[in-house]
Amino acid sequence: MKKRMRYTPLELRVLTTMEKHSMLQPGEHVLVASSGGADSMAMLTCLHRLAPRLNLRLTVGHLNHGIRGEEGDEDEAFVRTASSGLGLPFLSERADLRAYAAASGENLEEAARQARYRFLEQAAAGVDAGKIATGHTLNDQAETILLRLLRGSGPEGFAGIRPVLDNRIIRPMIECSRAEIVEYLSGRGILFREDSSNRDLRYQRNRVRHELIPYLERHFNPRLLQVLEREAGITSETHAFLENLARSEYRRLSHPVPDRASLPAPALRSMHVALRREVVREALRQTLGSLRGIGTVHIDGILKLCEPGKSGRWTELPGGFRARRELDNLVLGFDVRPERVEYSYELAWPGICTIPEAGVEFSATLLESPPSEAMRPGDECVRALLDPAALPPLLILRPRRPGDRYGGRGHRRVKKMLLAARLSISERDMNPLVTAGDAVIWIPGFPPAKFFVGKPGSGRCVLLEARRLPESG
């Protein structure tokens, strides 16, 4: 008769957590991330003991960060030996974390996190493992929530570490405290490694772990970890509902702009502020790929751009990202602040001139006796009939400049005309202007300036035409 496996309370807790969050299916292959520390060794042991019950295949993965010298090498050797003792395959890689951090511009903590997940994803793909198990615990959950709360990250941050991420990363130990884990390891005589850097108070997480949480437990609530876990669960459920609603609103409102997100500011203003925040967060997530580095202060800065009278304003965000208000649209992306491109071309009449910067070709034709039907309603969008007596031999084609007037000094400002026409900043800056001296005489899309207008049937006229170049659409 087959002996029935008896599980410890911690192992049962892990089993319950995995079932509650649907972490694994029978027969799955799991890459178990192990640093050799208490949390990951407890996870490795629990999963190894539960594997027959769940019909799991396990492979162990370890990243040597290359910053602790001999100590890091000993960690790697320790995990290799432990894996061999359990009869499990072992994968490892050595990284130059300091070089990685310098190249990426991240601090050492963030660089370590990125390098670790990059290695785990590559290792899992190499052995065809469908899930990656990491040893995050109840203590890690509390530390993360407090850090995010102190930095300001909104409801998603206060929801903490998700038990399952993208149906790929699983956290079987997320409901187990570190004290329970150490007791479990001690009771089973399982060795583990102590990372000396975990005591270095230069790192924020270590200060929260060793100073803030003990202080709060001692002076406010001895069950702080459980309280934060419960509140994170409630926040996570509420946020998931709001997130789904925001995702739907984002799809409804967003305009298809390559490498950017564009949303109508009036529609955002009409939403409840909680939903408005989430829609902006979804836009950032879709454009950036994640919200890492984005805090409440950044979301507030973006929302201010939705207020009336903010057209042309922008706000800088982490990583060279920008948000800009263009008329009624809020545009999010890299390099959304358009760079002015200067150009200047001469157009003789008759003659042809191409402006590659604007993707437009102009032609000037001299008509001796233009018929009355030379201009039809709507032709002013692409054609202008001008009086040759009012024109110099060469017309200048260039972008808008400060102080431009439509027809010369004393006439209407070009900037106001373009604003009234609801043209975006990039359109205003790139739209070619036809000028004579200091006077703007025609902008495609507008009737020509009155002083320069030619009248059909009144003798010679110059017909200007603007055409989009094929590659510019």
Quick structural overview:
The chain has 473 residues and is α+β, with helices and mostly antiparallel strands.
Keywords:
single chain, 473 residues, alpha+beta, Rossmann fold, Uridine Diphospho-n-acetylenolpyruvylglucosamine Reductase, domain 3, 3 domains, 5-stranded antiparallel beta sheet
Please, could you describe this protein's structure?
It contains 15 helices and 20 strands. It is an alpha+beta fold. The protein has three domains: 9-227, HUPs (Rossmann fold), CATH 3.40.50.620; 254-334, 2-Layer Sandwich (Uridine Diphospho-n-acetylenolpyruvylglucosamine Reductase, domain 3); 345-472, no CATH class. A hairpin with a 4-residue loop joins strand 13 (351-355) and strand 14. The longest helix has 30 residues, at 224-253. It is elongated. The model has no long low-confidence stretch (mean pLDDT 86).
Topology summary:
Elements: H1 9-20, E1 29-33, H2 38-54, E2 57-64, H3 69-86, E3 90-94, H4 97-104, H5 108-127, E4 131-133, H6 138-151, H7 154-158, E5 164-165, E6 169-170, H8 178-188, H9 204-219, H10 224-253, E7 255-257, E8 260-264, H11 265-269, H12 273-288, H13 296-304, E9 314-317, E10 321-326, E11 329-334, E12 345-348, E13 351-355, E14 360-367, E15 383-386, E16 394-398, E17 405-406, H14 414-420, H15 425-430, E18 433-436, E19 439-442, E20 461-468
Parallel strand pairs: 1-2, 1-4, 2-3, 4-6, 17-19
Antiparallel strand pairs: 5-6, 7-8, 8-11, 9-10, 10-11, 12-16, 13-14, 14-20, 15-20, 16-18, 18-19
